[in-house]
Amino acid sequence: MMQQPTYSLRQLVIYFLKLGTWGFGGPVALAGYMHRDLVENKKWISEEDYKEGLALAQLAPGPLAAQLGIYLGYVHYRILGATLAGLAFVLPSFLMVVALGYCYTRWQGIPLMQAVFYGVSAAVTGIISISSYKLIKKSIGPNIPLICICVVAATYTAITASESIWLFLLAGVGYWLFKHPGKLLSRNAAGVFFLPLLTDIYRSSNSGKLWDICWFYMKAGAFVFGSGLAIVPFLYSGVVKEYGWLNEQQFMDAVAVAMITPGPVVITVGFIGYLTAGLQGASVAAFATFFPCYLFTVLPAPFFRKYGKNPGIKTFVDGITAAAIGSITGAVIVLAKRSLTDLYTAAIAVVVAVLLWRVKNLPEPLVIITAAVAGIAIRYFLQ
After folding, report:
1. DSSP one-letter string for 212-253
2. Looking at the domain assignment, is residue 156 inside a domain?
3. Using one digit for the tens of pLDDT, what is the confidence trace for 74-96?
4. What is the number of domains present in the chain?
5. Domain span including residue 57
6. For the whole model, what pTM was predicted?
7. CA–CA separation, 247 vs 14, rounded Å?
């Protein structure tokens, strides 16, 4: 029997609206925020349910943070909860990128945005480094095999700056075999290998720009594995090389906008869609990207809910979770390489990390706003 929730659907929707508004840092930070807020602080979601959601989000294509949020909405409120949580999470950042798209097309260029990103990205590095540490301590603990999996995944992500679904699957199977040597996977456990069939996509010939936008972004949402910036190479090959919707500079500005706005990094598709075909283009691009990930979450969710407590599947999920946390930790290193470019940014990251370590319940919106102001001040007055 499903455990009765200790929170209302309205409270859940409000939480995801806030996370979508203030949740900077992309999937690395957002996954940590959800664990901290919903599992540790509010205790709305159990550790097991969170692990199941994180494992499913890693196995399925599409944006990790959005899928995790959708799954957590499904835990107690099923389809309605998943739908409203996903919409609430994505809507704030979508409205922001549309507004930024309007400003960009009206005044051209984003030097002020880049100055903001200069400070915010450094602060986010400090935020997610603390979040990653707490996630490791809470979810892995002193378990040596899981620590080894975490280290391997972190090293792979740090070196390649990418994620691999095969690494997650290998981690799950390897840990399962370690815990249950000599056994074959049960029929129930076999279903957990949720891999969509990758097929060649036939695209209809000239049928209008909006249809092209819809079909292209549907492929991006359905067939790109990995989180956050993993979708960027696919977008580049399409919007710059194949269709020519954006030039090189516009595309780089779109990526920058995605990184300086809160919510899922993949919302950059809204900005690109706006530059391509206005508000209609932004809406079609966002819907086409996120709808497949919604389906890839709610369709297998009943299986995870039904069989997630099975010892064999639980072991498999634990292995994937360790690899996922390792990838999050490795992504901290990748982000640090990109954002900590001088002594100023390094100082911002260290100060933020120390403050979050020492000061409980420090409002992160205040941290982000302060870092943005600091970034503008440094860029315009000290450099």
Report:
1. HHHHHHHHHHHH--SSGGGGHHHHIIIIIIIS-SS-HHHHHH
2. yes
3. 999 999 999 999 999 999 989 99
4. 1
5. 9-182+296-382
6. 0.67
7. 38
